[in-house]
Write a structure and sequence with these properties.
Layout: H1 6-12, H2 14-30, H3 38-73, H4 84-106, H5 108-114, H6 125-128, H7 136-139, H8 145-148, H9 153-169, H10 186-192, H11 210-215, H12 246-256, H13 261-269, H14 295-317, H15 324-346, H16 351-371, H17 376-395, H18 397-403, H19 421-428
Helix pairs in contact: 1-3, 1-14, 3-14, 3-15, 4-5, 4-9, 5-12, 12-13, 14-15, 14-17, 15-16, 16-17
Length: about 425
């Protein structure tokens, strides 16, 4: 059962993800649609890669917890050839996801985790990969009914993996199909990623729309209210790593300004828009436009993300052959890369020097791997890639100075055009 780790299998699915992205990119261009912007897509992919790396440590414990519930506390035991646990795995699994997802939109402290998935202002397959890094910390209780009702770990794993891959296809403008009033489709799910007040917190199901229709959270898109993608707070950063902390930062400032303990508790566990009512908004900035990111930087960051992804796949595919020390070194290297590369795309003033420091760490890690028995190929690969990257980045010193453009800070999360702050607060509910 230790191998039943969805994050490890997500890593195995990276080639399939890439193929789906390329297919959608080709299809959108053929239809004359604009669905991809490089920096936004980079942020989405880096968020997903970070979640997989963190899952390297969390996943085994979640699986062990499920196995414990199934083997010791199951209320029913099905025959090995029974189809009932399979039906439960898919329908009840999606039902549990619906409530886990709904809580992520209704409770501020959980929205601080889940909200990162909604920050993108595009709608394409990479948005499905824009995962919150810490959602696994509160997801387990929502799936507790499955092991209690006799759904085996294997059946649960297969069902949740299928639901996850299905949800990949609904984050698209081109993979349209009929849902037969049963299945979630791109046409129904795009509403969920809008910050129009009538759409926020709606259409929460991953595979089925049945739960939304039954519990009153289903809504159809209206022609007189076209979709406005993203969140009311705006899009702050191209860094999928830094994005994980934005709503925590906002929530922390709101709690500090909350006054009495009872009010602070209400801010933490109340509606996510509550802190916008009457509390001081902190200064934020808008991510620079994709066209402002130099072409050389797009090529460089894409190459570095590929290196980090390949290294991650190597660690995850052979996870049982690596020590915890190797896991931790790999996690630090990859997560550091996601933060650093995102800062480069954002045009932060110190991003260039920080990136050189990161590459130096990769060189040292390559030397360490080279000295370890059984890691000669990995060590040589890291040394070669990071050394060449270091030299190439140094050659772009003047260009790096030009790409660090100062950006004006705003007075806080900007409301959509024509909306008052109160409307924004209500829209998150």
């Amino acid at each position: 059962m230790n191998h039943l780790d969805t994050n490890a299998y997500y890593a195995l699915g990276i080639p399939a993800y890439v193929l789906v992205v390329l297919l959608e990119l080709w299809w959108t261009r053929r239809r004359g649609l604009v669905a991809y912007r490089y920096a936004d897509s980079f942020g989405n992919l880096s968020a997903g890669l970070g979640e997989i790396i963190i899952g390297l440590f969390i996943g085994p414990y979640l699986i062990a917890l499920y196995v414990l519930g199934y083997e010791h506390y199951a209320l029913v035991c099905w025959e090995s050839n029974s189809w009932i646990p399979w039906v439960l795995a898919f329908f009840l699994g999606d039902f549990c996801y619906y409530w886990y997802h709904r809580v992520g939109h209704r409770v501020a402290i959980f929205w601080a985790i889940h909200g990162v998935h909604h920050q993108s202002e595009e709608f394409n397959v990479t948005v499905a990969m824009r995962h919150p890094w810490f959602s696994d910390f509160y997801s387990a209780p929502f799936y507790a009914p499955l092991p209690l009702l006799g759904v085996s770990p294997t059946q649960f794993f297969i069902a949740i993996s299928a639901i996850s891959f299905y949800s990949l296809s609904i984050h698209s403008k081109v993979f349209q199909r009929t849902g037969l009033y049963i299945f979630t489709t791109p046409a129904t799910h795009i509403v969920h990623h809008c910050h129009n007040p009538r759409y926020i917190g709606r259409n929460l199901g991953a595979m089925f729309t049945l739960w939304d229709r039954f519990f009153g959270t289903h809504v159809e898109m209206r022609a007189d209210d076209p979709p406005r993608l993203g969140t009311p707070y705006g899009y702050e950063t191209h860094s999928g790593a830094r994005a994980q902390w934005i709503y925590w930062r906002d929530l922390w400032h709101a709690v500090r300004a909350g006054g009495r303990l009872s009010e602070r508790v209400r801010i933490l566990f109340g509606r996510p828009g509550r802190h916008l009512r009457g509390t001081a908004l902190i200064a934020t900035r808008k991510a620079r436009d994709d066209d402002e990111v130099p072409t050389w930087l797009k090529l460089y960051s894409a190459g570095q993300l590929c290196i980090a992804a390949c290294f991650s796949v190597y660690i995850l595919w052979l996870r049982d052959q690596h020590s915890v020390v190797v896991w931790m070194i790999a996690a630090v290297l990859v997560l550091w890369s996601l933060f650093s590369l995102g800062s480069l795309l954002d045009g932060d003033e110190r991003a260039w020097s920080q990136e050189l420091l990161r590459l130096s760490a990769w060189v040292l890690a390559g030397a360490w791997f080279l000295a370890e028995p059984g890691y000669a190929v990995a060590g040589r690969s890291l040394l070669l890639c990071s050394s060449l990257s270091f030299v190439w980045l140094l050659s772009r010193r003047e260009a790096s100075a030009l790409q660090a453009l100062p950006r004006a800070a705003s007075n806080g999360p900007a409301a959509p055009q024509g909306a008052a702050v109160g409307d924004v607060a209500r829209g998150i509910d």
